[in-house]
Amino acid sequence: xxxxxxxxxxxxxxxxxxxxxxIALNAGGKSPADFHWFDRAAVSVSAPVQSAxxxxxxxxxxxxxxxVMLLSTQSNNRSLALENRRLLNEIAAFQEVARENxxxxxxxxxxxxxxxxxxxxxxxxxxxxxxxxxxxLNKGTKQGVEVGMAVxxxxxxxxxxxxxxxDFSDVLSLLDSSSAIDALVQRNRFRGVVEGQGxxxxxxxxxxxxxxxxxGDLIIASGIGGLFPKGLTIGKxxxxxxxxxxxxxxxxxxxxADFNRLxxxxxxxxxxxxxxxxxxxxxxxxxxxxxxxxxxxxGEKHPAKPGDEKAPKTPPTPSAPAAATPPxxxxxxxx
Length: 335
Fold this sequence. Notes:
By secondary structure, the chain is of the alpha+beta class. It is built from five helices and twelve strands. The protein has two domains: about 1-110, no CATH class; about 115-270, Rod shape-determining protein MreC, domain 1 (Thrombin, subunit H, Beta Barrel), CATH 2.40.10. It has helices spanning about 1-5, 10-30, 35-110, 280-285, 290-300; strands at about 115-125, 135, 150, 155-165, 170-175, 180-185, 190-195, 200-205, 220, 235-240, 250-255, 265-270.
């Protein structure tokens, strides 16, 4: 018997695979009350097979759908990631434009009261050599920048233009050791000269030992020389040292402008009063205190006395020519 089954196993398997589904289908159309014994046997045999086949098909289909959806999701994620980076870059650019507009608006408001020609420029390079503190701007002679013009920022004085090309200009900053500017202590108007030291601080020189200078005093431009407008902030006093001997004192000043964060500056050419059009008030504003004191000293040394006024000199009138005299008559008989 076993040999027969083994010999005809293929045919028997085919018969079972054909007959069992037919019987199962036939039984599926009947009510359970109408099942015969072979219907119940067919259903009992085919039910586990059908369940396994159905589970395999559903699992395979779910896996295929998940794989396809995963591929689609990954593609969407890549697209969304690229879009997110693009939007983040645009937001950063818009924020930078907004901040730049705010800075320029404040710069325009700051420049409005200043007289003279004004050119707004951007800092495009800085010299890394501590001995030469130079700044390069993106405006040159084409835009009206000339050598000798002053450069200022919202915080205060920056420097002066020492070289101008067509589309660029180089600025000698206050920090450079060869830079100097006449300055005043705002609190009490003591005058000195602020010089760069090649580092991050400034030094105010030519102050007398008796001059009252304190830490925290604001140092401003005096306006002498006509380069920097009077009253522009230079910096604040951070250190005052007086030696036991000598007639001067050492004053260290922190610049008001942050040279490591400069972005926009203003190149300014203050109006200059021609000498022939200058009035006494203009001279006194340019050199305050000197002429008034000189006039006072002159008045004290040489007071006016009554009767000392001299009559104004009048040009001499030309004298009338002498009348011609006739020749004397000869006496009679004279030859």
